[in-house]
């Protein structure tokens, strides 16, 4: 399942550099996660890195993108060829 950024985002920019899939971009007014790129960090890290660094605790699961661990790994592999 991909994650998404909710309205509590303060646009601090801390998460962007942490994403192994370059899935996070600045939006207006809040930052945005591309669900087709977010693998929940599967393939790269044990837990979602954006959540670890986010001071606003505003990155919940995206209920519209439910995927198995295998599907998340395939997504990661596709992105990194
Ligand atoms: S969970 Fe990982 S892959 Fe998904 S947006 Fe956050 S840092 Fe990127
Ligand atoms: S770390 Fe959190 S508050 Fe900062 S830009 Fe990313 S989602 Fe927004």
Automatic annotation (TrEMBL):
Transmembrane stretches, start-end: none
Does this entry carry the keyword RNA-binding? Answer: no
Q: Which annotated residues bind [4Fe-4S] cluster 1?
A: 9, 12, 15, 54
Superkingdom of the organism of origin: Bacteria
Q: Which cofactors, if any, are listed as required?
A: [4Fe-4S] cluster
A Pfam family this chain is assigned to: Fer4
Record key words, sorted? 4Fe-4S, Electron transport, Iron, Iron-sulfur, Metal-binding, Transport
Specify the 4Fe-4S ferredoxin-type domain's residue ranges. Answer: 1-29
This entry's Gene Ontology molecular function terms read: 4 iron, 4 sulfur cluster binding; metal ion binding
Q: Which residues bind [4Fe-4S] cluster 2?
A: 19, 38, 41, 50
Alphabetical list of InterPro entries matching this protein: 4Fe4S_Fe-S-bd, 4Fe4S_Fe_S_CS, YfhL-like
Stretch forming the signal peptide: none
List the protein's name: Ferredoxin
Ranked from the top, the taxonomy reads: Bacteria, Pseudomonadati, Pseudomonadota, Betaproteobacteria, Rhodocyclales
Per the record, the gene is: fdx
